[in-house]
Amino acid sequence: MNDEGRPFRIFIFYPGMNERVWRVVLPGGAKHLFPTEGRAVEFALASASSVTTGRMRRVEVLKETLSGGWMVLARPAAI
Length: 79
Hints:
Blueprint: E1 8-13, E2 22-25, E3 31-34, H1 37-52, E4 59-64, E5 70-74
Parallel strand pairs: 1-4
Antiparallel strand pairs: 1-2, 2-3, 4-5
C-alpha cells in the first residue's frame, strides 16, 4: 500500500479512568507521557513541526475528547 498521500498523525490520548497521564503517540509508535494536557499538546505541536521538516507529507495532530471522539488541533503544511 502506498502511504504517500496519507498524513503522518500524532495522537494525544485523554487519560483513562483512574489515570492522570496524557499519552502522545508519534508516527512510528513512539509513546510519551505527560502530567498535564498543556504539556502534551505543546510536545505534540512541536513534534509536528519537526516531523514535517524535509518531508512531503502532511502532519495532523489529533486529540481525544472526554467522550472518545477526536478533535483536529493542527494540520501544519508539509515543507
